[in-house]
Amino acid sequence: MEKRHLIAKRAARYFQSGDVVNLGIGIPSLCGNYAEPGVLFQAENGFIGVGATAEGLMVNERTYNAGGVPFIPVPGSSGFDVAMAFGVIRSGRLAATVLGALQVSERGDLANWSTPGRSFGMGGAMDLVNGARKVIVAMEHCTREGAPKIVKECTLPYTGRGCVDHIVTELCVIDVTKEGLLLRELAPGHTLEEVRAKTEAELSLAEDLREMVI
């Protein structure tokens, strides 16, 4: 399986039927392909019930997600204004949000919106990391240049402090705990030595460290 889809499929295992979940752009947006039936996806521009990507005659100018992608609403979906969308987020009604990251620190701090000389805009991420009951980072383990993205301390502008609960990469699954980062699962074909070599932050090992369940 291509690594981006592997990450998304594993991240989607955190969802349960009945959950309302917000997905960020990039790898997180792929999680909808692997969620179990009954999971509803929320868009911060005002929709709950975001379904498959719309194509051809199914494209409707009224149903675009926050990333500008047209979608097909699922049965039982609901549209509303942006104020209500952020009311849902800020009131703690989201079971989870899945976001990409530029850096995650050993304390679960998140940086995901700005690099030197280039800012993407924080958008709704600052609300999502504070409002969702579970914050899942789905990202590639290292940058294109091979630098670790799981670091001791974020050097890029923060999105949120101490907000991340789980990290899913193509190499492993890590839980953020009060004691630090706990290595929970290793992806098939990858080793503990490889993960540690590509991670700047210190990792503790789960007593039941196991192969990643895809």
SSE arrangement:
Blueprint: H1 3-11, E1 20-23, E2 40-43, E3 47-53, E4 71-79, H2 82-90, E5 96-99, E6 103-105, E7 110-111, E8 114-115, E9 118-119, H3 125-131, E10 135-138, E11 150-151, E12 166-168, E13 172-177, E14 180-186, H4 192-197, E15 203-211
Parallel strand pairs: 1-2, 1-5, 5-10, 6-11, 10-12, 14-15
Antiparallel strand pairs: 2-3, 3-4, 6-7, 8-9, 12-13, 13-14
Overview of this structure, please?
With 214 residues, this protein is of the alpha/beta class. 14% of the residues lie in helices and 32% in strands. The chain is built from 4 helices and 15 strands. The strands form 3 sheets. It has a 10-stranded mixed beta sheet. Strands 7-6-11 form a 3-stranded mixed beta sheet, with no helix packed on it. Helix 2 packs parallel to helix 3.
**Strand fraction band?**
25-35%
Fraction of helical residues = 10-25%
Rg over C-alpha atoms, rounded to the nearest angstrom: 17 Å
Q: Provide the low-confidence segments as ranges.
A: none
Order of helices and strands: HEEEEHEEEEEHEEEEEHE
Please, how many helices?
A: 4
What oligomeric state best describes the polypeptide chains here? single chain
Could you report the average pLDDT, rounded to the nearest whole number? 95
Explain briefly what this protein structure is.
This protein is α/β, with parallel strands linked by helices. 14% of the residues lie in helices and 32% in strands. A hairpin with a 2-residue loop joins strand 13 and strand 14.
